[in-house]
Specification:
- It is a single chain.
- This protein has about 110 residues and is α/β, with parallel strands linked by helices.
- The protein is about 35% helix and about 20% strand.
- It is built from four helices and five strands; from the N terminus they run βαβαβαβαβ.
- Strand 3, helix 3 and strand 4 form a beta-alpha-beta unit.
Length: about 110
């Protein structure tokens, strides 16, 4: 089986459960699969103290331990007044999530709107 690379784009906070299940299924289907999750828009609210879900954050951390990269958009964080200090150290902040998605696609990643 070939190795696949996907970028999962999430921009709605209530889509996290579906997204995390999809990512888990993808990376566990074949050991060589690579996944990056890019969160922008309302999905960045999961990183605020008021809305942080400990179970969700544990699932994110577990997937990160399996090799999934998590990226968060700084523009969306600022727009929603989520402080960058709240972002876990295993989540990479980028200036613009949409630019990160375009970059990954230029590197051969397929795109999934989660």
């Amino acid at each position: 089986m070939a190795d696949y690379k996907l970028v999962f784009h999430i921009n709605e906070n209530d889509r996290w459960p579906f997204t995390l299940r999809s990512v888990r299924n993808f990376v566990r289907a074949h050991h060589g699969n690579k996944a990056v999750v890019v969160a922008n828009g309302g999905a960045v609210r999961s990183f605020s103290q008021l809305e942080a879900d400990p179970n969700r954050m544990a699932r994110i951390r577990g997937l990160e331990a399996e090799g999934v990269d998590f990226v968060v958009c700084e523009v969306a964080l600022k727009e929603r007044q989520v402080k960058t200090e709240l972002i876990p150290d295993y989540v990479r902040a980028v200036e613009a999530g949409i630019v990160e998605i375009a970059k990954l696609q230029s590197e051969g990643y397929g795109y999934v709107k989660a």
